[in-house]
Design brief:
Elements (H helix, E strand, L loop, with lengths): L2 H12 L4 H8 L4 E4 L7 H10 L2 E4 L5 H4 L9 H12 L3 E4 L3 E2 L5 H4 L6 H10 L5 E2 L2 E2 L10
Parallel strand pairs: 1-2, 2-3, 3-5, 4-6
């Protein structure tokens, strides 16, 4: 055998399939939480693209990030996660829209309504594979949500 061919065979044996390749082959979704500010770091971004087939924003799809006050919408960081996923053929899972520890102050100072979660999930419906709406939203005080 030629030395280059032997080298290629040895290299293939030394580097097994990525987690993503194995998951794709078996139809399993493998996800991780991401920070959009780190997507520009080559080792971070290449590891995400190679090893995972689904992403979720660590904090940037929570209500406090998407709507910090009643007049402001902040989709920039969420858009970065979705854009990265689209470029790399990945699914996106929204995490976590309503979370007791990450709701904006304006929300907890008035009666809670599900109108805003419905609005956001309708806007992002075509971009998201899955969306976790409530997580730990039952607080020690009934008025907290």
């Amino acid at each position: 055998m030629k030395p280059l061919l032997l080298l290629l065979i040895a290299a293939a044996a030394a580097f097994p399939q990525s987690l993503r390749q194995q998951a794709d082959r078996t139809g399993i979704l493998v996800s991780t939480a991401v920070r959009p500010d780190q997507l520009s770091e080559v080792p971070y971004a290449s590891t995400l693209a190679r090893e995972f087939n689904m992403l979720e924003a660590e904090n940037d799809m929570k209500w406090a990030a998407l709507r910090p006050d009643q007049k402001t919408f902040g989709f920039t960081k969420a858009d970065e996660v979705v854009g990265f996923a689209q470029v790399h053929g990945m699914k996106v899972r929204g995490h976590t829209l309503v979370w007791g520890r990450s709701n904006p102050p304006w929300l907890t100072s008035q009666p809670f309504t599900f109108a805003w979660p419905r609005f956001v999930t309708k806007i992002l419906a075509g971009l998201m594979s899955r969306w976790m709406i409530p997580l730990e939203c039952a607080a020690s005080k009934a008025s907290a949500i």
